[in-house]
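Moderator note: this is an archived Q&A kept for reference. The question asked for a predicted structure of one protein chain; the sequence and the answer are reproduced below.
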Amino acid sequence: MTALCFLARSNRLMPDTSFNGHVLHFTDSDPTGDERPVLLFLHAYTCNAVLWVDMVARFSSRFRCLALDLPGHGRSEPTGAARDMVYLADCAVAVLDAVGAPKAHVCGLSIGGMIAQHLGFSHADRVASLVLACTTGRLDPDAVGVWDERLAAVAAKGLWSQVQSTMERWYGQGVVDRFGPDDLDPIARMIATTTVEGALTCGQAVKAHDLTDRLGDVVAPTLVVGGELDLSFSPDHPKALVSALSSAQLVMLPDAGHLAPVQTSNAFAAALSGFYDHIGA
């Protein structure tokens, strides 16, 4: 993941757009807007678009790659409206509108995968395909209380209070020993620099997310990617997503925790490439 540090300092265009009176920041791998299809990346909770720099580098010859900072994350302004997953999906559509893209392939990780589900359900005409990575159709009942405790700690102590516990959850047993400070520090900085309002509002959106019973209406070609070592969403979650969707492929990555695109980047990219080859993207 050293590439994460390097590419974050590259000269890729980092434009802004405005939605509902608030600035949304995103990266654009090809602002000239050629005829290549658009691939929109949606990051994990308390991360930002920097999470995707390696995948953008790998896929920018095939797609025009966009990566959004969710409200209150990265350089996007926070807003109370971000507590609604429908609003977050509308933010993604606003980015597509800003670059004149009628539709996009969408790849979302964790909360990004939840937003992608809403896009597939409520903005089907804007979605060419979906990749739902390390995510769920709804939280387990006992996880709701965990999120209440987590959000209370954020409100009382800020995001620094969450760095250690989050890193332990994302890079748990069987994952963390493969990484050193140069790999982990950029992730810790993303968590720590997320705004409190961004974490609280998007956290409420995660708590309320429940689309499992409606995912059968999603018609876009879909790939579900899970991590066998994911401590946030165990393998039962991606398997339940595939069961709920009318037609979806499943790839389980044996060495991946919650941040599969950076923990097992080669395997994650191979899964995406195979999927895009399969659907002719």
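Archived answer notes: The beta strands are 16-19, 22-28, 38-42, 64-68, 104-109, 127-133, 222-227, 248-253.
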